[in-house]
Amino acid sequence: MIKTGIIGGSGYTAGELLRLLQNHPKTTVDFVYSTTNAGKPVAKVHQDLLGDTDLLFTDTINPEVNLVFLCLGHGQSKAFLEKHHFASHTRIIDLGNDFRLHPDAGSFVYGLPELNRKKIKMTQFVANPGCFATAIQLALVPLAQHQELQNSIHINATTGSTGAGVQPSGTTHHSWRTNNMSHYKAFEHQHLDEIQQSLDKLQPGFNQELLFIPNRGDFSRGIFATLYTQTEKSLDAIVALYKTFYQNDPFVVVTTDTIHLKQVVQTNKCIISLEKKGKYLLITSIIDNLIKGASGQAIQNMNLMFGLDEKTGLQLKSGSF
Amino acid sequence: MIKTGIIGGSGYTAGELLRLLQNHPKTTVDFVYSTTNAGKPVAKVHQDLLGDTDLLFTDTINPEVNLVFLCLGHGQSKAFLEKHHFASHTRIIDLGNDFRLHPDAGSFVYGLPELNRKKIKMTQFVANPGCFATAIQLALVPLAQHQELQNSIHINATTGSTGAGVQPSGTTHHSWRTNNMSHYKAFEHQHLDEIQQSLDKLQPGFNQELLFIPNRGDFSRGIFATLYTQTEKSLDAIVALYKTFYQNDPFVVVTTDTIHLKQVVQTNKCIISLEKKGKYLLITSIIDNLIKGASGQAIQNMNLMFGLDEKTGLQLKSGSF
Amino acid sequence: MIKTGIIGGSGYTAGELLRLLQNHPKTTVDFVYSTTNAGKPVAKVHQDLLGDTDLLFTDTINPEVNLVFLCLGHGQSKAFLEKHHFASHTRIIDLGNDFRLHPDAGSFVYGLPELNRKKIKMTQFVANPGCFATAIQLALVPLAQHQELQNSIHINATTGSTGAGVQPSGTTHHSWRTNNMSHYKAFEHQHLDEIQQSLDKLQPGFNQELLFIPNRGDFSRGIFATLYTQTEKSLDAIVALYKTFYQNDPFVVVTTDTIHLKQVVQTNKCIISLEKKGKYLLITSIIDNLIKGASGQAIQNMNLMFGLDEKTGLQLKSGSF
Amino acid sequence: MIKTGIIGGSGYTAGELLRLLQNHPKTTVDFVYSTTNAGKPVAKVHQDLLGDTDLLFTDTINPEVNLVFLCLGHGQSKAFLEKHHFASHTRIIDLGNDFRLHPDAGSFVYGLPELNRKKIKMTQFVANPGCFATAIQLALVPLAQHQELQNSIHINATTGSTGAGVQPSGTTHHSWRTNNMSHYKAFEHQHLDEIQQSLDKLQPGFNQELLFIPNRGDFSRGIFATLYTQTEKSLDAIVALYKTFYQNDPFVVVTTDTIHLKQVVQTNKCIISLEKKGKYLLITSIIDNLIKGASGQAIQNMNLMFGLDEKTGLQLKSGSF
C-alpha cells in the first residue's frame, strides 16, 4: 500500500483527495496536516466523510510517507518544503502553482499526463496543472503538436464556485453568486503562463495570441470552455488528429456531438467536442475543476508515478443531474 | 417629501430599503450611515444602484430627518440610540429585534400592519417584525383572533440565504449552500417569542405548543412556510374567517389554490393557502423575506405613520422566474 | 388610458407584460388572447398575479384597442395579422421576429429606442428586438456610429432558461439545466441578422466578422455578454464616445467598473462596462432578457409611441439577490 | 459475471443503474430495453456515458439474463411481466411500485436491506422501495422494532427535481423550479402505504398518525427529511437503540451532529441525526433519491441476492459540492 500524507487538509482539493483516496485500493492516508484543525476529526470538516473515516487532522508530518500531496494556497508550497523535510524516497505532488513554470519548476515535472506521461512515470516530483489550464491545454495540445496553431486563439471559460476555494468571500456568498455571472482577470489569468509554456514546447516559437476570458458561473463544480481559431484543415482531418493524439488516454473523449458540462462533473474525464464553422474550428472542452482539474489529476499522476494502472481509483460515477 | 436616514447602510435590508425608497414618490434619502463604508459611493456596495444614485455613505447622521430606519445587527439598535440622538419629531423604525418584545419594547409598536395598523398610524416608534415571524403570524392570527388555536401547531419553514445576512460564512458559501438543505435552531428559533406574544394578545392565555423547524434553503430570497393544527371548523368557515380578517389588507391574499414560493418573491405580498385534510388545517404562507419580511414591511409601516396610502412605493413586479 | 390587448397570452413575455402593465399608470389591459386558455383566469397561468387581477383569457380580440402586443412564437405574427384585423388607429408591437428584417419589416420600425427613438415616436408599428440582439447592439452601436468597427468582433453571451420559452423541453428540464452549461447555434444564431442590419445602417459597408457563441446558463433570467475587438482608440476616448452616445438614454449605464449580471436582473437597464486590454477593447453588456430584452423594451416603445415619458412604468426595483 | 438487463432504459433510474453497473466488478449489462430509443446508442440519451459504453438500446429482451431491473413507470411492471417472460432462474428487481404492497406483492420481497436483508438474500423477486419511503423508514424502523412509536409522527421532506422523472412538465421546467419551493400531496403521498406496512410489521397494531408533507425542492438530487414524535426515552438511550439496530448496515450512519443534505448526495448512504428537544425526538434523515432511494438500493439488493458483499460497486465518492 502507498502511504500518503496530505498537507493543507481543510481546503476543497484536500477534501476531494480524501474522498478519492478512501476508495483507492492501493493507498492509505497516513496523515492529514492542518495547523488550524489539528486534533479535530477530519469528518467534522469534510462532513460527507462521516462514518467513513476516523482520521484526525494533525500538525505533525510523517516524513517517511511514500507520497505527499501539497494542497496549500498558491505560493505556499515552496515555503512549506523549505521548512519541512521528507525522506529521500518520498514523492511529492504539488497542487499549487509554485512549481509549474520554468525555471521555478526545478526538478518538478508538469503533471499533465496526456502531455508528459513518460516523464511523470520517472519523476519524484510533480507540479499538478491548474484547472483552467487543464481544460484549455487538452483542447489545444493536439493542434500544437502538429504546428497547427497559426492564428489567434479565442477562449471563454466558466468555472464553478469551488474554483475560488473554501474561504468565504463576497463573490462566493450564495446570495451574490446564485443566478449570477461575471468575469475576472480577462486576458490576464495566471494560468495563461502554463498554457503558453506547454504550447511552446510542442510548437516551438508559438507566438499566437491567447485571448482568454474567465467567468464565474452559477454552479459549484466544473469548467465549461469554448475555444476557436482559424485553420484550413477539414473537420475530418482535425478529428482524426485529436483521436490519434488521445488514443491511449483513458480520460479524454473526443466527439463531434454537442456536449454539456454535466457530462463530466464528478468524474476525471475531459470531453472535447469539435466543430468546424467556415474557417473557424470551435473546440468545446469540459472538465470537473476539482477532479480532472485538481485532485483527480493528482491521483492520476500518483498512479503513474507508482506504476499503477492510470485509472485506479478514478472510475467514478458521473454526477449527471 | 419625507426625509429619511438609514443606519447600518451596507447590509441586505438597507440595500433593499434603498431600492424601494428610490422609487417611492414621497420620500428622499437624506443619508446612509455606515462607519465601515463612509465616503464610498452607495452604488459601490449596492451595485445594482449604479446609474441610479450618487449618494455616498456617511458616518455623520442628520438628527433632523423625519424618519430613521435602523438596519443594524440584532441587539445593536438600543446601543445606537443611546449614543445618538434624533430630533423630538424624528420617527424611528427598527428592523432589528431590540424592541419587539415587552417589556423591552418600551414605546415601540410592533410593526405588523395587519395586526396593529391603528397603533402604527399613531406611534413615533416601530419595531419591524422578523421575517419568519411575519410569515408565521400572518398564517395564524386570524385563528387566534377567534380563539381557534386549541391544539399544537406544527411549523416548517425554509428561508433563502439572504436571511443569513451579507457577512460571508460557511453556511452561506455558494459551494456549500447550492443544492443543499439543512435545519437550524429547531424548536428554539428566537422568532417564536414575538409570535407567542402576538398570539397571546389575540387569544389571551394561549398556551399551545409551537413546534417550529426552520430550514436553510437553496435559494436567495423567500420564506416558504407550512403550518398545521387540528380544528373542527370546516374549510369554508376557515376561509371565510381569513378573508374577513384580511379584507382591508392590500398585501395579504387568501386562497385555496396550491401555491409556490416564487408567486411572492420580489413583492410585499403574503399569500396564504388553506386546505383541510381530515381534522387538520394545513396553512401555507409565503413571503419575500427581504420585502414583506423586512424592508417592504418597514416602508409599509412608514406609509402608515405618515398618513400615506399603505401601498405607496410597494406595487412591485414579482420576480416570477 | 391606453387600452391594450395581448395576443399569445400564456407565454413568458406576455406574463411579464401583464406584470409591468398592471403597475403602469397610463394603461389598461383590455384583453389577453389565448386560444388554449380561453375562459381561464389569467392568474391561474401567471400565478404570481393572484390577488392582483380578475382578468380571464379570451379567444376574442377587441379590434378597437389602442395597442396590441403580439407575443406569439417566432414566425407566427404575420400569419396572425393576416387572419385578424384591427382598427386603422390600432398600434402594434410585435415581440416576435417576423418584422425585424428588411424587406419583411414593411412599415414596422425596429424598436431599439437607443437607436431609433425618433422613428418609434412616429410609427404605428414596432418590431421589438431580440434579447441577445439588444444586449449585443447596445454594446456595439456607439462604435458603429463612429465607424470604429474595423476588426473582427468576438462575442460570447449566456442566457437564462426563460429565453427558451415556457414550453418544457429536455434542455429546460430543471434536472438537466441546473448546475449545467452548454452552447448552441455557435456562429449561427438568428439574432446576428438584426445586429448586422443595425450596424450596417450606422456604419455603411460594415463587413467585419461577428463571431458569436450563445450559451445556455444555469439561471432563469438575464443575459451576460462579453465582446471584444481591436481598436486604436484609448479607453478614455471610448468611454467618452459611449457616454455621449447614451447621454439621453435613461436605461443605459456606461461604466468602467467590473459588473455582474444581477445588477440588472428584474430591471429595464442595460449596463455596459468598458475595459481596454492592450489593443483590445473589452465590452461587457448585461440585461434582463425578459425586460430590456423583451417586455420592458416593448413598454418603452409603447411609451414613446404614445408620447409618454419613456420611463413610465419601468422604474423597477432590481432583483439584486 | 452476472448478466443483467434493464427494462425502461431511458429514464433517470435506468441511467443511474447504468452508471453504477459499469463500475460494478461482477456484472455486465446484457441489454437495455427501450421501445422509444431502440437502435440508438445508450450514450446518446445518458450522455455522460459517452466514451464509456457502445451499448445500443434494444426492443428485444434476452430472457436468459441472470437479473432484470424494471425501471418502468409506476403501475407498468405488472403489465410488462404479463407480456414478457424470463427464464425460470432470472431474478427480478422492480423499481416501480407494483409489488411493494400486500397482497399485490405476491412473491416479491420488499427490498429495504436494513429491514429484510435475510429475505432478500433468499428471494428471486424484489420490490425496491420508494425514495421518500426509504428515507422515512430508515428514520423510524429502530423505534418501531422497540414498539416506541406511541404518538403522532410529523414528517416534512423535500425532494430534488429528479424525483419527478425525466418527462418534462410545468413543475420541472427550470424557470419555474429554480429558486422555488412548493408542496404536493400533503398528508396523502402514496409512499405512506409502504411505510405503514413496514412499521406495522415491526410494531404490530401500529396506528399512530403519519403526518407527511412532501416538498419540491430547488435542487436536482436528494431527500432531506425531518421527523419528530414524542418519546420519554432519553437521547442516549435512543442513540444506543439506533446504533444497535444499524450496527451491521454499511450504508446507514447514526449521529448526533447537525447534518446537511449534500453529505450523502451521489452516495448510497443514509445519515440519520438524532436530537431531543424536551419531550420531542427530532430525527433528520438524508439520502440521495436516485441512489439509496432507487438505483443504488437496487444494486445493494442485487448484491445480496447473488451473495456478493453488499457494498460491491457502491463505494461512491460523495458529490459534496
UniProtKB/TrEMBL annotation, chains A, B, C, D:
The keyword Transcription regulation does not apply. Pathway: Amino-acid biosynthesis; L-arginine biosynthesis; N(2)-acetyl-L-ornithine from L-glutamate: step 3/4. Its EC number is 1.2.1.38. InterPro entries: AGPR, AGPR_AS, AGPR_dimerisation_dom, AGPR_type-1, NAD(P)-bd_dom_sf, Semialdehyde_DH_NAD-bd. It is an enzyme of class 1 (oxidoreductase). One of its GO terms (molecular function) is N-acetyl-gamma-glutamyl-phosphate reductase activity. Catalyzes the NADPH-dependent reduction of N-acetyl-5-glutamyl phosphate to yield N-acetyl-L-glutamate 5-semialdehyde. This is N-acetyl-gamma-glutamyl-phosphate reductase. It comes from Flavobacterium supellecticarium.
